Amino acid sequence: MPSAENSGIPAAELQRFTAYLRGCKRILALVGAGLSASSGLPTFRGAGGLWRSLDATALATPEAFERTPGLVWQFYSYRRHMALQAEPNKAHYALAELARKNEDFITLSQNVDGLSQRANHPSEQLHLLHGTLFDIKCTNFYCDYTRENEFTDPIVPALDIPKLDSGLNPSAVDKTGEEAAKSMREALSGTQTEIDISDANNQIPELDAKDLPQCPKCNDGLLRPGVVWFGEALPEKTMNTVDEWIAAGTIDLCLVIGTSARIWPAAGYIHEARSKGARIAVCNMDPKDTPGELHKGDWFFTGDAGVIVPEIFKSIIGEI
Ligand code: BJW
Ligand code: ZN
Question: Which pLDDT value is given to residue 93?
């Protein structure tokens, strides 16, 4: 079967999608960790799943931070470092370019890595559902201190862990984030490759709270990454803006790119878009990672977002 150059997309599928895309007015994209996988960043649950051998809920919760702030900060310090080393890939640039061509296209990103912003995605068309690694906020309930765009790496000297220095850079060849996930597991666990974060006997040294980032406003609280942990509400302003956009009219197309769509409420936006008339186009490395049932007229593009996304937008945005 003929396929589009290098992408492996059957030519007829690409043509059917491109013809539809040209007539689309209102487009919503939901993107996840797979978008940044070919930039070398690990995913959460896919082939290169960051958390396959870590207990995710033991790390990404307010309770974990309260119990072991040093451990949680090491995890996020590592993630900040990785994200700063990584470069946006062609999918980030393609999404940003499509946004410039169509002001009624919004992207809801579950990613906290800052790569879409660094690809100059128009900020008013990019909605960060799960916050960002580079906003820092106070944990004291009475203190409203936040610091945006905090790129200092490491954020405090205690989080400059020398053993993290080797094998740290995002892989240029691995498109699933698997290499990055492995090096992170090894770095966090020292000599072990499989660790149980919730196990009190794990060998990860807990840092002294006084060496972790401190709030300069209340002088009483630890600072934390401005990401959305399990059990926490998504940013209210962002959700309101997205809800208003969804309510404003029918939606022609919902792009689901590099996400397992298992985390709510983010995954719910796909169903909302469908209920507003949208056809769904999925781009995922794993052909089994379908967000619910696909209908006739939808698309599933199997492969690396960094290759597929620029290809399926090419007739509108040109070569990236
Ligand atoms: C490629 C590729 C390549 C690889 N190219 N593809 C309804 C039902 C059940 C549970 C709930 C519910 N509503 C809420 C919940 C609870 C919970 C939840 O969803 N739990 C699930 C376990 C079911 N949700 C919450 O707690 C949320 N809060 C909430 O609901 O609050 C309510 C509330 C209201 C009012 C007051 C108080 C509370 C918050 C969820 C926050 C999620 N946070 C995390 C961590 C952020 C910080 C951090 O980064 O550490 O966000 S979890 C983690 O998952 C992260 C991600 O953004 C998110 C989504 O993951 P993503 O991006 O989909 O990654 P993967 O790894 O799952 O998938 C990658 C995909 O890429 C795979 O499919 C690969 O195949 C593919 N891939 N390489 C293309 N090259
Ligand atoms: Zn404070």
Answer: 98
What is the structure's pLDDT at 49?
Answer: 64
47 has pLDDT over 50: yes
Q: What is the pLDDT of residues 265-277, one digit of tens each?
A: 999 999 999 999 9
Q: Which CATH number fits domain 11-317: 2.60.40.10, 3.40.50.200, 3.40.50.1220, 3.90.1170.40?
A: 3.40.50.1220
Ligand 1 atom closest to Cα of 231? 26
The pLDDT assigned to 201 comes to 53
Residue among 9, 30, 43 whose CB has most ligand 1 atoms within 8 A, to mutate: 43
Protein residue with its CA nearest to atom 31 in ligand 1: 233
Residue 92: closest CA among 14, 150, 31, 179: 31
Closest CA to 78 of 196, 147, 166: 166
Strands 131-138 and 146-147: antiparallel
* Cis peptide preceding 2, ω within 30 of 0: no
Please provide the average confidence, as pLDDT, over all residues in the chain. Answer: 88
Tokens of 260: 């397992």
What's the distance, CA 159 to chain centroid? 23
Please, how many CA atoms are within 13 Å of residue 152, restricted to the half-sphere of its CB? 12
Exposed, middle or buried by CB within 10 Å (0-12, 13-18, 19+), for 241? middle
pTM to 2 decimals?
0.92
Least confident of 14-18, 79-83, 189-193, 310-314: 189-193
Contact (CB, 8 A) for 197 and 58: yes
| Contact 264 CB / ligand 1 (< 6 Å) | yes
First to last CA, the chain: 25
